[in-house]
Amino acid sequence: MTSTRTWLQLLRVGRAAGRGATGGGIRFVSLLCAAFSLGLAAAVLVAGFAVYDGRETRGAGRAPQYVSGPDSKDAAVLLRDAGDDVDDGQRSIVYMEPLDSTVEPPPGVAAWPAPGEVLLSPALREELLAEGALDRYGPVTGAIGPQGLEVPGERLAYIRPPAGFMDRSSMTAAKGFGSAERSVYGDRATVPPLSAFVGLAATMVLFPALVLVVIAARSGAANRDRRMALLRALGAGARARALVNAGEAALPVAIGAALACAVVACALPTDLTVPVVDFTLPSADLRRWAPALLAAAVVASVVALAVVLLLHRTSRSTGPRPAPRSRFTARPLVWLCLVFLLVATRGADLVGGSATGPMWRLVYTVGVVGTLATLPALVSVLVSAVGRGLVGWANRRGRPGALVAGRWAVTHPGVTARLVAAVVIAIGLITQIQLNASLLSDPMIVARAAHERVGDSVLTVTSSARQEQNRAFVETLPSGTHALAMGATDEGGLLLEGDCAALGALGAPCGPGKADPSDARIGELAAWFGGGQSVMLREGNPVTAMEKEAEQLILVGTAPGDLPVAEVKRTAYRELPAPQIMSIGGEWLGGAAQLAKPAAWTLLLGFVGVALLAFAAAVNNLGEFLRFGRSLAPLNVLVGKPGIFYVSAGWTILLPLTVAGALGVVVSAWLSAPMTTKGAVLTDSFLAALLILAGTLAVISWAWGARTAHSLADRWRPAAD
Fold it and tell me: What's the rounded Cα separation, in Å, for the pair 552 and 546?
C-alpha cells in the first residue's frame, strides 16, 4: 500500500513539475502531437495490411478455377480478359460465357446477364457516365457488388458476349470461381506490392513521427535534466525519476493516443476517399482489422512514453548543472556541401549511363545525401553572417532586440543547424522521392513525345475478329474515320492498304506508291511499326487484307486533329471481340499512366512527412528559444516593450526557417536536374507547395515563439537562480 501511495505521489510530482516548468505548454502540445502522429502513422501501416489482405481475400474469391480447355468435361464457364486503355491507366474488361446455367456467377454478381449485356463496377459506371458513354461496352443491366471488387474504386466490367460472337478457342475454361490465388484480372497488375507501400509509409510517415517524438521528449531538456540531477542528488533512484518523468508526460501522450483512436474510429462506419490519391478505403476491411488498428495506436503511445523516459539523461557531474557541449563548427561542412552538390549535378553525368544504372545511381545518391546532410551547416553560416551584420547595425541604431538576436545567431550556429536540419532534409527527401516516382523509361518518353506530335489522330485496332466482324466494324465507323490494314512488305517495310478515301486522308493518291513523308502520322507509323523504313500504300480492301497478311487495322481521319475515340471504342466493342484500341505508343503511355498512382501516394505521404518534420523543427526551435527567452526576460524591465521579443524571434526563428525553406527548395531543384534529363518530372507547382508549407510553418513558429517568450517575461521575477 505504501509503495502504491509513493508511486502515485511521484506521478503527481511529475505532473505538477510539468505544469510549472518553463515551456510546459509547448512541451504538452508537442508530446500530444507526437503521440497522435505516431499512433496515426502506426494505424496507417496496419490499414495498409488490412486493405491488402482484403484484396487477397476478395481476389481469391472471384478467381476462376481453370481447367484444361473448353472441351473439358468440367468446363462450366469460358472467360477472356481484356482492357480498355484510358488516359489514367487501364480498365479491366472480362468476357464471361457460362456453359452451364446452374454454375454460380462470380462474387458480386446476383445472376448471369443475358447475352450481350454488361455489368459494371460503381467506379467504372461513374466514369462512363461522366464521359457520356455508359453503353460503350453494351447495354448495362446491373452492377458488380462490393464482394466482387478488390477495392471499391476498382474499374471492372463483366460482359456476356452474344452467341457466336467470340471464338471459343481464344477463351479460357473454368469450372467455377474461388481459388487459393487472386484473380489475374482487375487492377492487380497496376497495384504496387504491399512491401512498396510499407516502405513508403514507414519512410515518409512513421520515421518523421518518431523524429517528432524524440524532439518532443527533449523539448526543454535543460530544465528537466537539472531536475533529474537534483532528484538524484537527493537520493532518488532510477525508478523514482522515471515515475516523475512519466507523470509529466502521461496526460499529453494519453490524449494524443485517444485522438488517434478517434480518427481511426471515424474510418470504420463507411468508406472514405483519401484526398489527392482518390482512393476509397474499404470500411469492411478496416472493421475486420479494427482491434489491430486500435492496438497500433495504443502501442504507439506506449512507445512514445518509453522514448520520453529513455531520453532523460542525468549528468554525472557533482552538481545539478548540465555539462556544456562543444561548439559546433560549420565552415568545413559548408565546403563539403558545395563539393557534394558538384558531385550530384556533374559527377553522375561524367559517369554516364541511364538513371537506373548502378554506377550512375551510386554517384548521384552519394552527392544528394552528402548535400542534404551538410546543407544545414550552410544555412547556419548564412544566418551567422547576417547576425554579425545585425550586431553592427543594432549597435549604431540602438536596437536591443536586433542586437541580442544577432549575438545569439553568431554564438550558437549549432542551434541554428539543428533547428533547420529537419526542414531542409525533409524537402530534399520528398523531392527525391517524387523524382523517382515519376521517372519514366526511354520508351515511355518517346511515346509521350510521339503522342504530343500526333495525339489521337491515328489509332491502332487489334482483335481476333472474323472477316464479317471486321467488315461490320469498318462499315459502322464514325463519319470521317477511315480504316487501313497494316502489314509488312517483302522487304520488311510497312504496308498500308485501304480504299481511295483512306489513302486520300493521308494525302496519297489511289494505287500503289510510297507515302508522303510530310504526313506526321505516316512518319510515326514508320518509326513505331516499320523500323524507320519507307511506308508503302496500296489501294485495296482492308477487310480482305486482314484475312491475309495484315495484322492490325489503322484508323485515320479526313480532317486534321484527334479522332472521335469514344465513338470508335463504342463501335469496336459492339462489333469486335475483345478489341484493343490504342494511339501511337499506347502500351508505353499506359505504363506511364500507371506510375501516376504511386506518385500521388508519394506526394500525399511525403507532404505528411514534411509537415511532421517541420513541426519537429518548430518544437526544437521553440525549446531553444525558451532557453534564450529566460535570458532575455530581464530586458523586459529595462526596455518595457514587447516588440523586442518579436524582433528577436524574427531573427532567431523566422529568418533561419525561411532561409532553410527557400534554400532547401532551390537546392532540391538544382539536384533534380540530372533526374529530369533522364525523364523524371518535377513541376513548379510541387516546389511552390513545398515553399509555401515551409514559409507557413516558419511564420507560425515565429509568432508562437515570440508570444511564449513575452508571456515568460511578464511572469519573470528576480530569483536566486
Answer: 7
Written as nine digits, the cell of 77 is 464457364
Is pLDDT above 90 for 124?
yes
Name the one residue in this structure whose C-alpha cell is 460503381.
Answer: 122
- The residues facing 458 across adjacent strands are 556
Alpha-carbon Rg for the chain in angstroms:
33
Q: Give the other-Cβ count within 10 Å of 20's Cβ.
A: 8
**DSSP conformational letter for 84:** E
Q: Which letter, b or e, does each residue of 289-328 get, where b requires 16 or more Cβ atoms within 10 Å of its Cβ?
A: bbebbbebbbebbebbbebbeebbebeeeeebebeeeeee
Measured distance CA(182)–CA(64) in Å, rounded: 9
Task: List 95's β-bridge partners, or say none.
Answer: 80, 159
Would you place residue 620 in the very low, low, confident or very high pLDDT band (cuts 50, 70, 90)?
Answer: confident
Short-list 620, 639, 654, 633, CA closest to 409: 654
Task: Compute the C-alpha angle 716/314/238, nearest 5°.
Answer: 115
- Cell numbers standing for residue 552: 492490325
Q: Any idea which residue has 508519394 for its cell?
A: 602
| Residue 46 Cα to chain centre, angstroms | 17
CA distance 678 to 151: 34
φ, ψ of residue 618 to 5 degrees: the values are: -65, -45
- Residue 142 has, within 13 A of its CA and on its CB side, a CA count of 16
- 10 Å CB burial of residue 593 (0-12, 13-18, 19+) is middle
Place of cell 508522303: 516
* Residue 625 pLDDT greater than 70, yes or no: no
Other beta carbons less than 10 A from residue 98's beta carbon: 15
Q: Specify the residue for cell string 476498382.
A: 154
Cβ contact 590:90 at 8 Å: yes
Cell of 550: 495484315
Q: Mean pLDDT check: name the lowest of 79-93, 241-255, 279-293.
A: 241-255
C-alpha cell at 263: 480518427
CB atoms within 10 A of CB 240: 18
Integer Cα distance of 536 and 36 in angstroms: 68
Q: Please, are residues 537 and 512 in contact by the beta-carbon 8 Å criterion?
A: yes
